[in-house]
Design a protein that fits this description.
nine-stranded mixed beta sheet; 2 domains; seven-stranded parallel beta sheet; 19 helices; alpha/beta; Rossmann fold
Length: about 550
């Protein structure tokens, strides 16, 4: 007889940005290493339908799933740390909840009843958990609730979880509450009162946490553990320390394993599972922390002051570096500064240049000059999405001598629109979920650097963009030396460009960073870091 699906709900208290997503992903890692099938999802209380229209300054990068869903960056952690492949079902926002309720009301599905937050909104939230359950074979579904306990916008989600736990049986549910234990330097003490108050707020809603995960700069002594246990009504062994890691986020599963979080959860849910073998994970972490080599990569963008704006790219460089026993030192370069000072000042000593995706024309000329610097000086170059378009524009201007060549995104009246809007995008007026989104298949041509990296003719990659390489310029640009090495399988849209008589010069229209994993780095990132290491050693 099949066991019922088990549910873990991860909430947060005291302050935001505690690392609930990393805690959920790390727990997923540990449970997978115990032989369990795990699926993770994120509930976000904000009113946006999805983060697709949000500035990176607001919410970090937009992480794109295989089915084209634009989601929170925490889903990137879920897919990197575990083997689960998420879909649009794995992320729901208050905006989606209210949108669905209004649609149901307008279509008469509520049969004339007064529409209320409870039960109509909470039913939508619970239905999402049930739908994920029906479409998944997972033993355990972990759900992270965004925001902080006590926030008014998160109350509906917590109420829905309270109801859901009663409906499926409390024995099938584990509530984990992540809180902050601040260290007061003047007193020389860790303070537990914020945790006590946060748990009290959760209990007011009707949720009693089974496990409390304490974010802390210092270790958690037994006195504080016992104090939290007493005031928060949990067993002392269920108070878990989640310490600041020193080197890399991939230490997080190993840290949580110290207090046996996975075993506590397994015991709470009655899961029969093996003791996790984390040797391979430890080996990866050791390669990240203690590499033999190092390289310096410049990431030239316009959101470089914000760590989370290019989160998946930075993590993909870590994965690729570990493969080559190499520490990747990233220097974040403001494209606007390149426009003011020129590229030599910022880029003369780097081993590779990466230009990530983006929208709008701010910093564009600085990125074009950076691509030119890489091409002319034999510096390994990797352009992603907009970075691929930048490489095309630079080549068209400076090699093909097409004066004024650019993208119609930046200049609708350009004499040479080497990058242009897709035909099906021309009449699109809405912003959300209206781009070319999600996974699609591409053909890789043999006798190219791209084929050498992938080792196969058919690849599947994720997209998020509106503008494309203009096929009217394909023959002219290729004949000058910018080779097209991959096109989409359905419409022949240009996917990868490269310069073959260059140490490494590749632009990809898609986002390879969304498919890189710790022990399986993306092949283009791996090739890029390898080329950067070769340049440094030369």
């Amino acid at each position: 007889m099949a066991h019922p699906t088990k549910y873990i709900f991860v909430t947060g208290g005291v302050v935001s940005s505690l690392g609930k997503g990393l805690a959920a992903a790390s727990l997923g890692t540990l449970l997978e290493h115990r032989g369990l099938d795990v699926l993770i999802q994120k509930f976000d209380p904000y009113l946006n339908v999805d983060p697709g229209t949000m500035s990176p300054y607001q919410h970090g990068e937009v992480y794109v799933l295989a089915d084209g869903a634009e989601t929170d960056l925490d889903l990137g952690h879920y897919e990197r740390f575990t083997n689960c492949e998420c879909s649009s079902l794995n992320n729901i926002t208050s905006g989606q909840v209210f949108e669905n309720v209004i649609k149901n009301e307008r279509s008469g599905k509520y049969l004339g009843k007064t529409v209320q937050f409870i039960p109509h909104c909470t039913d939508i939230i619970k239905d999402r958990i049930r739908e994920v359950t029906l479409k998944s074979d997972a033993d355990v579904i972990i759900t992270e609730i965004g925001g902080t306990t006590g926030d008014i916008e998160g109350h509906l989600f917590l109420e829905a979880l309270r109801q859901f736990s009663l409906e499926v049986g409390r024995d099938n549910v584990c509530f984990i509450h992540v809180t902050l234990l601040p260290y007061i330097a003047a007193a020389g003490e860790i303070k537990t009162k914020p945790t006590q108050q946060s748990v009290a707020k959760l209990r007011e809603i009707g949720i009693v946490p089974d496990i409390i995960v304490c974010r802390t700069e210092h270790d958690l002594d037994e006195d504080n553990r016992a104090k939290i246990a007493m005031f928060c009504n949990v067993e002392a062994k269920n108070v878990v320390a989640f310490r600041d890691v020193k080197h890399t986020i991939y230490e997080c599963p190993l840290d949580l394993r110290r207090d046996k979080l996975d075993r506590l959860v397994s015991d709470r849910l009655g899961l029969e599972s093996e003791t996790p073998d984390l040797e391979q994970w430890r080996h990866f972490v050791d390669r990240v922390i203690n590499p033999t080599h190092e390289v310096t990569i410049a990431v030239v963008g316009k959101y470089i002051e914000l760590q989370d704006a290019y989160k998946s790219i930075y993590e993909s460089l870590v994965h690729a570096g570990a493969k080559h026993d190499t520490r990747v030192n990233v220097i974040r370069v403001d494209a606007g500064q390149i426009e003011e000072e020129g590229p030599a000042t910022q880029l003369k000593d780097v081993d590779g240049i990466l230009i990530p995706g983006g929208f709008g024309d701010r910093g564009t000329e600085g990125k074009i000059r950076s691509a030119q610097f890489a091409r002319e000086n034999g510096v390994p170059y990797f352009g992603i999405c907009l970075g691929m378009q930048i490489a095309t524009i630079e080549f068209a201007r400076n090699v093909c001598k097409l004066d004024g060549a650019t993208s119609t995104e930046f200049d609708k009246n350009t004499p040479h629109p080497v990058i242009s809007l897709q035909e099906e995008q021309e009449n699109v007026t809405t912003m959300g979920a209206s781009m070319r989104l999600g996974s699609s298949e591409s053909v890789v041509y043999k006798d190219t650097k791209a084929f050498e990296l992938y080792g196969e003719e058919s690849i599947t990659e994720r997209h998020r963009h509106r503008y494309e390489f203009n096929p009217a310029y394909r023959e002219q640009i290729e004949s000058a030396g910018l080779k097209i090495s991959s096109v989409s399988a359905d419409h022949g849209l240009v996917e990868i460009v490269e310069i073959q008589n260059h140490p490494f010069y590749i632009g990809a229209q898609f986002h390879p960073e969304f498919q890189s994993k710790p022990n399986k780095p993306h092949p283009i990132f791996a090739g890029f870091v390898e080329a950067a290491l070769a340049k440094k050693n030369s």
